[in-house]
Predict the 3D structure of the following.
Amino acid sequence: MTHGAAVVDPQASVDPSVELGAFVVVHAGVVVGAGCVVQDGAVLGKAPILGAHSRAIGVGDDEPTILEAGCIVGCGAVLVRGCRVGTGAVIGDHVLLRERAQVGAESVVGHGGAVGAGVVIGCRARIQNNVVLAPGTVVEDEVFCGPGVTTTDNPLAGPRALERPGTRLGRGCRIAAGVILLPGADVGEHAIVGAGSVVTRPVPARTVSHGSPARVVRDVGAAEQ
Ligand SMILES: CC(C)(COP(=O)(O)OP(=O)(O)OC[C@H]1O[C@@H](n2cnc3c(N)ncnc32)[C@H](O)[C@@H]1OP(=O)(O)O)[C@@H](O)C(=O)NCCC(=O)NCCS
């Protein structure tokens, strides 16, 4: 294990093959699998900070934080307790993974992303820089989210809003740069949403939508499959 000036809690489990950069902090209950690389200043298994009136789902003191084999965690990333990163996934510099967020095998979350509590990202998804995924968002396998995409939940609808499933981005869909998806604006499998769109209602599978509000303009073409 390469430790630099890392601080590793005795109740963390770090495989001997792991590379830990300088000033990495590994809290109790974190499990880091073989071959992972954790770059300078990353914090793994951090306790969440919740405001006095927070409606966040929270996380138990003993919930593990798991990095499966071969993950890379970039500089300054913060992984809150209870999140899970799948085999070979890449978590970019300064990414925040909130409690119980999951990132599937071989997926990438780009620089500065904020992945909300309980978000589930499938396998081989490509989440570009500065994407914000609201709590409960479900991102299925092989989804592409361009830079600056934002999914939202609805804090104005009262506490029960958080009990509803979050926005679902269907398998293989592509969301272009800067798209905002309002609550309930699920995107169907292999659909495309054009840059800068505001999506206010569900998008059918294999269609192209764009605009504000986004409207379906055509089916996905053969060259775009
Ligand atoms: C989805 C996308 C491919 C659609 O582009 P397209 O195939 O050229 O557009 P369509 O043929 O379906 O529609 C053409 C019309 O819609 C308009 N249009 C295209 N994209 C639009 C958008 N995102 N928002 C609003 N209008 C758009 C065009 O101006 C054109 O209008 P006109 O006929 O009045 O001139 C494109 O909007 C897009 O988002 N590209 C990806 C950019 C990106 O984010 N890449 C990844 C980040 S690195």
